[in-house]
Amino acid sequence: MHDGSGRIVVQNLTKHFGQVGAVQNLSFHVEPGSVTGFLGPNGAGKTTTLRMLLGLVTPTAGWATINGQPFNHLGNPGRVVGAVLEAQGFHPTRSARNHLRVYAAAMGIPDQRCDEVLHLVGLGEAAHRKAGGFSLGMKQRLALATALLGDPQVLVLDEPANGLDPEGIAWLRTFLRSFAGGGRTVLISSHLLAEVEQTIDQVVIISRGQTMYYGMLDDLRKSQQSRVIAQPSDPNKLVGALQEAGLSGATPTQDGKIAIPGVTVQQVGDVAAKAGVALYGVQEERADLEELFFRLTSGQYAAPQNPPQFGQLPPGAHGTPPGGYAAPVQLPQGAQPGGWNPQSGPVPQAPPPPQGYDQHQGYQGGQGGNA
Ligand SMILES: Nc1ncnc2c1ncn2[C@@H]1O[C@H](COP(=O)(O)OP(=O)(O)OP(=O)(O)O)[C@@H](O)[C@H]1O
């Protein structure tokens, strides 16, 4: 029925709604044992991609599989994939426990599992309360409980932190990390990097339906070249000494200090000491990850004809581009998610579409029932 891998593969996925190119040639893998963040600003195409992954929208081109199968071929999908696209749709007068019982019955799951998942998401005490009176954060938790009913191997969550307070976000982080730590697969979307930064290992950043970065979050972090800001007694003398030491690129800052890219505090201190220049202050500065995310995805509404290239980053940006950031689809240097070889070109070798798949008519025939 499926290969049991818990792997998500999205390959050249494309969706047009009339003139709107919602998703354009998107490719990425999500491996078990990791949490992948699917990030982009409002309207970037995140939900459309997740809906295609979950068989709710037919792609214009490309395909997506879970466990090696299109969602609609996954026999009893609720036992493979737990998905939350919207934390809505609860019957307002039905208690949390009864809401879950309806789904459990449909999936052939014993009632006892309902209380288990309510405890898992921290709603044990609210089991008897009506869902209509729940806060947004509680609804998120109840939606997650519903997704967990079938003890799935894969979790797909659209904006799961939406509506959660800081404590709720911290709880979600711990929960998802431990879920993935047990060898399961987690794909979560968000329009805020800061919200999921501490939760995710891998990241797919999209803007206007196209990949802007795909790789490990750590690689994105490391790719931002740091600079050292120094306040010397004699700036000219220090800049000269740095040049002599082969450390070029120093520029004055607006407040009378100098900024030296790609060096360590120790290197600057050593050069200054040797040159007899006093340092009244020296510190390393690294571009903020959120700022880089903003730069990668800005222009969504300014609508340039082509996605931004690094050379077009706004002035003042001192971070260097991550190796893989070259839109539309290119892997970051050193990032090899899903066995992709970053040296092999911008788009990974496309495996053949899953059996029974017709690009224009969707999935035809094949085994397994629909959800
Ligand atoms: N059913 C639809 N019909 C027409 N256009 C659609 C439809 N669904 C989505 N779109 C358009 O596709 C684009 C991507 O929308 P999508 O909801 O996937 O983005 P998103 O990244 O999930 O945004 P958000 O963070 O705001 O939820 C948007 O321009 C949206 O207006």
UniProtKB/TrEMBL annotation:
<keyword id="KW-0813">Transport</keyword>
<keyword id="KW-0547">Nucleotide-binding</keyword>
<dbReference type="InterPro" id="IPR017871">
    <property type="entry name" value="ABC_transporter-like_CS"/>
</dbReference>
<dbReference type="GO" id="GO:0005524">
    <property type="term" value="F:ATP binding"/>
</dbReference>
<feature type="domain" description="ABC transporter">
    <location>
        <begin position="8"/>
        <end position="233"/>
    </location>
</feature>
<dbReference type="GO" id="GO:0016887">
    <property type="term" value="F:ATP hydrolysis activity"/>
</dbReference>
<feature type="region of interest" description="Disordered">
    <location>
        <begin position="303"/>
        <end position="371"/>
    </location>
</feature>
<keyword id="KW-0067">ATP-binding</keyword>
<dbReference type="InterPro" id="IPR027417">
    <property type="entry name" value="P-loop_NTPase"/>
</dbReference>
<dbReference type="InterPro" id="IPR003593">
    <property type="entry name" value="AAA+_ATPase"/>
</dbReference>
<dbReference type="InterPro" id="IPR003439">
    <property type="entry name" value="ABC_transporter-like_ATP-bd"/>
</dbReference>
<protein>
    <submittedName>
        <fullName>ABC-2 type transport system ATP-binding protein</fullName>
    </submittedName>
</protein>
<comment type="similarity">
    <text>Belongs to the ABC transporter superfamily.</text>
</comment>
<dbReference type="Pfam" id="PF00005">
    <property type="entry name" value="ABC_tran"/>
</dbReference>
